[in-house]
Amino acid sequence: MRKAQSDFVAVGRIVKAHGIKGEVKVKPLTDKPERFKRLSSIQIELPSREPFEAVIDQVSVKGDNIYLRLNGVASRDAAQALNGATLTIPEEDLLPLADDEFYLFELVGFTVKTVAGDVLGTVSEVMDLSSNEVLVVRSDERECLIPVIQDVIVEMNMDAQQIVIQPIDGLLD
Fold first, then answer.
1. Alpha carbon distance 32, 95 (integer Å)
2. What does the alpha-carbon distance between residue 157 and residue 24 come to, in Å, rounded to a whole number?
3. CATH fold of 2-93
4. What residues contact 83, with CB distance under 8 A and at least 6 apart?
5. What angle (nearest 5°) sits at the alpha carbon of residue 15, between those of residues 24 and 105?
6. Alpha-carbon distance 86 to 151, whole Å?
7. Phi/psi at 4 (5° precision)
8. Which is it for strands 111-114 and 65-70: parallel, antiparallel or unpaired?
9. Following DSSP, what letter does each residue of 151-163 receive, concatenated?
10. CB 34: neighbour CB atoms within 10 A?
11. Which one in 14, 52, 124, 168 has a CA-CA gap of 20 to 30 Å to 46?
12. How sure is the predictor about 32, in pLDDT bands with cuts at 50, 70 and 90?
C-alpha cells in the first residue's frame, strides 16, 4: 500500500471497466485483497477532480483480481471514466499487522545506505510495479530506484528508520 492524500492510504487502482453494468476491475495494492469485502465505501482519487467517496454495492474476488460495483456507477461508460483512479481508505481503517510486518508507505522518509555505509538519500516514494515495489530514493545529488527484492534489501530497521541495501551490478550507475 502506498500513502495517498493526507491520512488516506491507497489499497487499489481501477484498471478497467468490466462488463456493461458499471462494474470495475481493480488491481489491489495490498497483500490482503479480501479486505475489500469488509469495506462499505471507498474514496476515489482521480487527477482530474476532487477525491470523492463511493458506496460499494458488491465485491467479487477472483484470484488476484477484485471486481467492484459502486453505487451510482451503472454503465460501462461511467465505469470507464474511473480508469486509472486510485482507491483509498482512511489510515485508521487499516488492518492490524503482526509485530514483524509493516505497510510500504511507512518507509517514506527512511534513510537508505549501502552495506559499505554510503548514504544514498531518503525514500520519497514507493512505486508499485507489476513485478515488485521500488523505492524512490532522493538526495541533493541524485535519485535512485531501489527494487524491494531479497537480493538488494539487507535490512529494514523500523525503529531507526533506516534501510540497508547491497547494490547489485548497475543499480547505482
1. 9
2. 38
3. Elongation Factor Tu (Ef-tu); domain 3 (2.40.30)
4. 14, 15, 16, 17
5. 110
6. 30
7. -100, -140
8. unpaired
9. TTEEEEETTTTEE
10. 12
11. 124
12. confident
Domain 104-165 has CATH 2.30.30.240: yes
Q: Which of 53, 20, 57 is nearest to 37 (CA)?
A: 57
Q: Are 75 and 69 in contact (CB under 8 A)?
A: no
Measured in residues, the chain has a length of: 173
Q: Where in the chain is the domain with CATH 2.40.30.60?
A: 2-93
Q: Give the residue with greater pLDDT, 2 vs 171.
A: 171
| CATH 2.30.30.240 domain range(s) in the chain | 104-165
- At 34-60, the pLDDT tens digits run 889 999 999 999 988 899 999 999 999
Task: Select from 27, 7, 166, 146 the least CA-distant residue to 84.
Answer: 27
Residue 146 CA, distance from chain mean position = 16
Query: Which residues sit opposite 2 in a β-bridge?
Result: 10
Q: Are 15 and 45 in contact (CB under 8 A)?
A: no
Alpha-carbon Rg for the chain, nearest whole angstrom, is: 18
